[in-house]
């Protein structure tokens, strides 16, 4: 068994770029490809920059996808058809939802590769720090090969089954993140509209059981207008739609998520989709 798998990283955006850098820093050979070449070029000091998907995947032990959505992932993996070694492990880390992960798992069968569903928790800074939490589902024989990658990008791996249970858990966790974020925006807006300095809310809850580093950091970003994206608002809206689809199929009556969707969509429609998700506050 390969102890240092060669990893092809397809998609070097905010998350994929940081993950590729940490995989290389852990001593694994890395090839990177990105649709807009300039983002892949930023990694040329640590990785081999491939001019095409084919060039990136040829001979790779692990193909890691960190692309925007199901359509992007499927389109890119189709370009690799007939050029993946049999038994290559496809490490699918983008957030694609239940239908998306089922579709991609079926594409993996068609491509005769081993599918590992491995979305991550954490955003730009944890990705840069190699401190993501990896949620992983896949066949036991793939685990030794992908573990060095998980150790490089994350502080912890949580294995949850062999199918696509990890994607389910990712949706559960993202439902919490979206609820929290919108809750912070609403309390700040309520404070402002009640004639209070909104910062008073953050000071009031500071250090209490209901506080969290997230409350303070996103709350301060909202108040200071710092919306450099860690995760774009349009991505948060994409994920809320994946959560609502999952809940609909499961028959779960979610009260908060439709309301969160309404506010995220309002801010996206106002032109804030490329800003950090904290920019939902701009339309409150
Ligand atoms: P990002 O910086 O916008 O990167 C998106 C990547 O997808 C880029 O490489 C982009 O290529 C590529 N892409 C988009 N459409 C494509 C297409 N049709 N064909 C080929 N490539 C395409 O986004 P990100 O924040 O890194 O997110 C990547 C994935 O991670 C998403 O599924 C997201 O939900 C998930 N995620 C994000 C975070 C976070 O906090 N940021 C956390 C956990 C999970 P170009 O550079 O050419 O546009």
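^ Assign residues to that structure.
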């Amino acid at each position: 068994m390969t102890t240092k798998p060669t990893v092809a990283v397809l998609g070097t955006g905010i998350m994929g770029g940081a993950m590729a850098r940490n995989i290389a820093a852990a001593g694994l050979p890395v090839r990177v490809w990105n649709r807009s070449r300039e983002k892949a070029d930023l990694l040329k000091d640590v990785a081999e920059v491939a001019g095409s998907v084919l060039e990136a995947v040829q001979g790779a032990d692990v193909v890691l996808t960190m692309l925007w959505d199901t359509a992007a992932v499927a389109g890119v993996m189709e370009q690799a058809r007939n050029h993946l070694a049999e038994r290559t492990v496809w490490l699918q880390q983008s957030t694609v939802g239940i239908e998306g992960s089922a579709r991609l798992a079926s594409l993996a069968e068609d491509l005769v590769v081993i599918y590992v569903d491995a979305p991550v928790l954490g955003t730009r800074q944890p990705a840069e720090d190699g401190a993501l939490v990896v949620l992983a589902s896949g066949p036991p024989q793939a685990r030794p090969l992908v573990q060095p990658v998980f150790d490089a990008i994350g502080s912890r791996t949580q294995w949850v089954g062999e199918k696509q249970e990890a994607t389910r858990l990712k949706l559960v966790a993202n439902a919490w993140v979206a609820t929290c974020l919108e809750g912070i925006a609403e309390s700040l807006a309520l404070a402002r509209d009640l004639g209070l300095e909104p910062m008073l809310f953050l000071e009031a809850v500071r250090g209490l059981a209901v506080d969290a580093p997230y409350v303070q950091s996103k709350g301060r970003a909202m108040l200071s207008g710092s919306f450099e994206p860690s995760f774009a608002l349009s991505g948060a809206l994409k994920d809320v739609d994946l959560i609502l689809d999952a809940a609909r199929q499961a028959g779960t009556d979610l009260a908060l998520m439709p309301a969160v969707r309404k506010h995220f969509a309002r801010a996206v429609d106002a032109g804030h989709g490329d800003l950090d998700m904290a920019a939902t506050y701009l339309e409150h």
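The chain has twelve helices and nine strands.
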